[in-house]
Amino acid sequence: MTSGLDPSRLDDAAVAEAADPGGMLRQVASSASQVREAQRAVAEAGIASLAEDGRPRAVVVAGMGGSGISGDVLAAVCGVGCAVPVTTVRGYRLPGWVGAADLVIAVSCSGKTEETLEVAAEAARRGCRLLFVGGTDSPLAELSDRSRGVFVPVRSVGQPRSTLWGLTIPLVLAARTLGLADVPDAVLESTAGLLEDVAYRCRPSSEPFVNPAKRMALDIMGDVPLVWGSSALAATAAYRLCCQLNENAKYPGVFGEVPEADHNQVMAFDGHFAHRGGGVTPSSGPGGPDGSDDLDDFFRDRADDPEHGLHLVLMRDVDEHPQVRKRCDASAEMARARGVAVTEIGAEGEHPLERIATLIALADYVTVYLAIALGVDPTPVPAIQELKARIA
């Protein structure tokens, strides 16, 4: 592909798709079908057996990278009122408190992730209840057979980070089986429908001034994004956006959650990277442009925009604590007053699964379009591969 910064690549669908030789846009567009396919896989796997011994003391999800975030999404869907703790382990060691009373869910799209396999093997030795989610004919599947765990096969759509919903829905349905999450089939289908809707609005043939993902990619390009979530659910989406900036666009992103970010990261508004002209950028969501002022700003002459300024990206949930809502609004006002650009993304839907799905869906498209505009192939992750080779 042609390398180097060229925002005009987003103007033409054919050019944008040519700059995406690995088909990351196609992979992201498969999200809705992943939801439906995962439901069928779970039905065939027989996860009802997980509830035979009653509710577990805790749910521990073991996973790394694009597989590990499925545990964060599960915790967000279960919510802060969940009857048992839901935690994600990213590493080689299972916490000492985990035992036979707990459910350990090992998630690996490839089925070969060394950290996940080590934690899963330890969970089996401790006699934990086990659920395995990942690639067929893999070391993870073999471990499931040896330990008599429940195994849900997942078909990768290309990259683990693009198979998020294929990996996550089995966890959500397991939580439903255990009485830890209220997720009716109708919500699963409405979530798939919302993912299809976001995919349509963010499709390559949609021009940048009406495509919310292309617009946001152009807005943050050259800036250092501070990505803050306004709830635990939105914070998971914010973390996902930062991870996708890293892997898809090979670009930095600083994750935060309100109110915690207002106790530390807000001070960056007064620092070196805050110096930028204007400080007003469109507030956007999956629904697209929301005002003529936004369009005026979008069509501004960017030639004089300073490079490498801060950019506050607020991912807003429908369900926010009243004080958090005030903090988000005040933080945005302070940022703009100091010349820091601000973009807001709003969740859609009512159910937690719907809301987090819409936030993540837009974020995924933003990072792919940013990669294309920067002249970066969004699919390969050579630095990760090199690191694995160095420690092999």
What does this structure look like?
The chain is of the alpha/beta class. The protein contains 14 helices and 9 strands. Strand 8 (310-316), helix 12 (322-337) and strand 9 (341-346) form a beta-alpha-beta unit. It is globular, with a radius of gyration of 21 Å. Mean pLDDT is 92; it is low at 277-284 and 287-293.
Task: Give a quick summary of the entry.
With 392 residues, the protein is an alpha/beta fold. The chain is 45% helix and 12% strand. It is built from 14 helices and 9 strands.
Characteristic terms for this protein:
2 domains; Rossmann fold; alpha/beta; 45% helix; 4-stranded parallel beta sheet
Number of strands: 9
Instruction: List SSEs in N-to-C order.
Output: HHHEHEEHEHEHHHEHEHEHEHH
**Taking Cα atoms only, what radius of gyration do you get, to the nearest Å?**
21 Å
Largest sheet: 5 strands, parallel
CATH architecture of the largest domain: 3-Layer(aba) Sandwich
Q: Please identify the top-level CATH class of the largest domain.
A: Alpha Beta
Q: Strand order within the widest sheet?
A: 2-1-3-4-5
Give the terminus-to-terminus CA distance.
Answer: 30 Å
Poorly predicted segments? 277-284, 287-293
**DSSP helix fraction:** 40-55%
Specify the CATH homologous superfamily of the largest domain.
Answer: Glucose-6-phosphate isomerase like protein, domain 1
Average pLDDT confidence is: 92
- In terms of DSSP E residues, the strand content is 5-15%
Number of domain modules: 2
State the secondary-structure class: alpha/beta
Shape: globular
CATH topology term of the largest domain: Rossmann fold
Number of helices: 14
